[in-house]
């Protein structure tokens, strides 16, 4: 807060407190010239008369005490512009202390699993239960409570892994995150193969996930193969099986991260895709990251006995 705004707040607070004190003082007693009860002519039911009468002294004193309390509060806690208060209290400091205390309790809970490998944790029902809870709180927003994902968010319950499904690779994904980038190739393909180039590549890509499909009677796919070999094979490989080091998907399986409709495939090729998995290591810490990675790995490796669906 700038010095000018700080003084603005201080003056505003002082005027409010001073105004309240003055108002109490001014109304605490009858003033010369105030009409007597019999002079107001405001009488109801014979004996109920309206006139100016100060509040009871005990009530007035309570108001003065609240003003004194407000002044003491503003001296002890921050509230007057940039003045930090005599106590040195800040909301950020209290948050950090509460967080540190909470993290200390968590560390006690997670300490038995520190440094254990993912496959070992995946065989421990108690570890899986903790991993499932962490997944539900952290990962289910994108991947769903059943870990089956959605359009643009990978299914974690099958055996298809774009970045590798070994325990070490899964932990690396959780800890460091992933950036999956598919460049836009629409302009390049059109320049090389004409206006139908993108449709031809779509036709060829579809044959990769259809066992026994022949290109002999599929002109569009045959044309698309030439373009695929020249451009797409650099990441997805000549056989279309992808590259887990790059996160390039295997195009020979039946799983399509962004949908398998012609429109979705065209959108992917023409405009590209950018999938981002945030790094959760700084958020969770290593032990919690290991537990959730073990749970995720167990979903497709048959070791999640009794783990159930995350809630």
UniProtKB/TrEMBL annotation:
GO biological process: oxidative phosphorylation; proton transmembrane transport
Pfam families for this protein: Cytochrome_CBB3, FixP_N
Co-factor binding comment: Binds 2 heme C groups per subunit.
Residues noted as binding heme c 2 in the record, renumbered to the chain: 182, 232, 235-236
Cofactor(s) of this protein: heme c
Mitochondrion recorded as keyword: no
Xref: InterPro entries: CcoP_N (IPR032858), CcoP_N_sf (IPR038414), Cyt_c-like_dom (IPR009056), Cyt_c-like_dom_sf (IPR036909), Cyt_c_oxidase_cbb3_su3 (IPR004678), Cytochrome_c_Oxidase_Subunit (IPR050597)
Domain of life the protein comes from: Bacteria
Regions crossing the membrane: 6-26, 58-77
Keywords annotated in UniProt: Cell inner membrane, Cell membrane, Electron transport, Heme, Hydrogen ion transport, Ion transport, Iron, Membrane, Metal-binding, Oxidoreductase, Repeat, Respiratory chain, Transmembrane, Transmembrane helix, Transport
Keyword Membrane: yes
PROSITE patterns: CYTC (PS51007)
Cellular localization per UniProt: Cell inner membrane
Pathway annotation from the record: Energy metabolism; oxidative phosphorylation
Stored SUPFAM superfamilies: Cytochrome c
Molecular function per GO: electron transfer activity; heme binding; metal ion binding; oxidoreductase activity
Subunit structure: Component of the cbb3-type cytochrome c oxidase.
Similarity remark: Belongs to the CcoP / FixP family.
Function: C-type cytochrome. Part of the cbb3-type cytochrome c oxidase complex.
Protein name as annotated: Cbb3-type cytochrome c oxidase subunit
Taxon lineage: Bacteria, Pseudomonadati, Pseudomonadota, Gammaproteobacteria, Lysobacterales
């Amino acid at each position: 807060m700038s010095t000018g705004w700080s003084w603005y707040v201080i003056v505003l607070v002082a005027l409010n407190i001073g105004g309240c004190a003055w108002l109490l003082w001014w109304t605490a007693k009858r003033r010369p010239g105030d009409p007597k009860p019999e002079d107001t002519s405001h009488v109801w039911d014979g004996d109920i008369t309206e006139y100016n009468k100060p509040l009871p002294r005990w009530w007035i004193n309570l108001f003065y005490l609240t003003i004194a309390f407000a002044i003491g509060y503003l001296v002890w806690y921050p509230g007057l512009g940039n003045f930090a208060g005599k106590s040195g209290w800040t909301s950020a400091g209290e948050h950090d202390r509460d967080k540190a205390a909470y993290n200390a309790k968590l560390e006690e809970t997670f300490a038995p699993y520190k440094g254990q490998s993912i496959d070992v944790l995946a065989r421990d029902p108690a570890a899986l239960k903790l991993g499932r809870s962490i997944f539900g709180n952290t990962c289910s927003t994108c991947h769903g409570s059943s870990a089956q994902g959605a359009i643009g968010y990978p299914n974690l319950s099958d055996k298809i892994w774009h970045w590798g499904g070994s325990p070490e690779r899964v932990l690396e994904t959780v800890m460091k995150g992933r950036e999956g980038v598919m460049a836009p190739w629409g302009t390049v393909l059109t320049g090389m193969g004409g206006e139908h180039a993108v449709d031809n590549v779509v036709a060829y890509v579809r044959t990769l996930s259809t066992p026994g499909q022949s290109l002999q009677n599929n002109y569009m796919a045959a044309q698309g193969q030439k373009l695929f070999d020249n451009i797409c094979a650099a990441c997805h490989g000549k056989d279309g099986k992808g590259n887990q080091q790059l996160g390039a998907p295997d195009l020979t399986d039946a799983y399509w991260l962004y949908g398998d409709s012609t429109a979705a495939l065209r959108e992917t090729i023409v405009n590209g895709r950018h999938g981002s998995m945030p790094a959760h290591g700084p958020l969770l810490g290593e032990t919690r990251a290991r537990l959730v990675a073990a749970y995720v790995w167990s979903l497709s490796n048959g070791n999640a006995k009794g783990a159930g669906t995350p809630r």
